[in-house]
């Protein structure tokens, strides 16, 4: 069988219109589409029998499927892909949708993470899906590190970057830490980090610990090891992925659909895998659409992902924004919203630099 694009080119006008109307109706209602409903407002006067013959041909080509309890048809994954690539018309976001997104970015508190969290919440609200926001890495050089004891089992590591950015990270320190051991560990690290990013620092800390094992107190060394583990954990991106609006996916779901959503929730918990997947958006500009099994992460739940990268002032991809939901997404509405939001976030980040 030829690929979807070739099949689309081979369809005559009547077949294309039948296919388009079936997909659009299905995306709007979620129900199988029958021949009689199509004949009522078809552009040319044709019988239901003629429409049924066209539908059978489209099913033979793999573009439509017939649910076992219905005489109507629904698009297959290949049909949805062909519709999205060859027929779907993408406009601009609705004015009300733009205003809701704009309002979140207008609350400029200077905290990028808080801003992205608001964007994720707004995006899930506007699209009624689950939003995914991959926050940008902070790769500025580190200026200073400090450990602050909070309790016997809790401590704070404060990272001050050369560009003025400050990050506070809670962690569980090894037992037996004292204020003096924390100062020693911080002094040791500060002697290494000058002018280096976190990525650079990770590469040299372990070897330096081995070289200076005798000079560094064992308690302080344990703390450095603990801090190194914290940074390695941060490098998995689990804290940089913001997921909002999962409850939207539960609306009016029953039976098999509820099981699909349960599987999807399990997928969403695997944040590291999702973050790695979203970073594939760095391979190309613009919105990308993954339908069903095209997205290996969500293939079991039969979900779709609409995702777009956003860039900094240097036109470098630093993160991604996406919406996930059932394959019956309103792609014509979701795609421009995701694209608009990604461009807006990129502009905001660029204006900060």
UniProtKB/TrEMBL annotation:
<keyword id="KW-0346">Stress response</keyword>
<keyword id="KW-0805">Transcription regulation</keyword>
<dbReference type="InterPro" id="IPR021153">
    <property type="entry name" value="HrcA_C"/>
</dbReference>
<dbReference type="InterPro" id="IPR002571">
    <property type="entry name" value="HrcA"/>
</dbReference>
<feature type="domain" description="Heat-inducible transcription repressor HrcA C-terminal">
    <location>
        <begin position="115"/>
        <end position="335"/>
    </location>
</feature>
<comment type="function">
    <text>Negative regulator of class I heat shock genes (grpE-dnaK-dnaJ and groELS operons). Prevents heat-shock induction of these operons.</text>
</comment>
<dbReference type="GO" id="GO:0003677">
    <property type="term" value="F:DNA binding"/>
</dbReference>
<dbReference type="Pfam" id="PF01628">
    <property type="entry name" value="HrcA"/>
</dbReference>
<comment type="similarity">
    <text>Belongs to the HrcA family.</text>
</comment>
<protein>
    <recommendedName>
        <fullName>Heat-inducible transcription repressor HrcA</fullName>
    </recommendedName>
</protein>
<dbReference type="GO" id="GO:0045892">
    <property type="term" value="P:negative regulation of DNA-templated transcription"/>
</dbReference>
<keyword id="KW-0804">Transcription</keyword>
<keyword id="KW-0678">Repressor</keyword>
<dbReference type="InterPro" id="IPR036390">
    <property type="entry name" value="WH_DNA-bd_sf"/>
</dbReference>
<dbReference type="InterPro" id="IPR023120">
    <property type="entry name" value="WHTH_transcript_rep_HrcA_IDD"/>
</dbReference>
<dbReference type="InterPro" id="IPR029016">
    <property type="entry name" value="GAF-like_dom_sf"/>
</dbReference>
<dbReference type="InterPro" id="IPR036388">
    <property type="entry name" value="WH-like_DNA-bd_sf"/>
</dbReference>
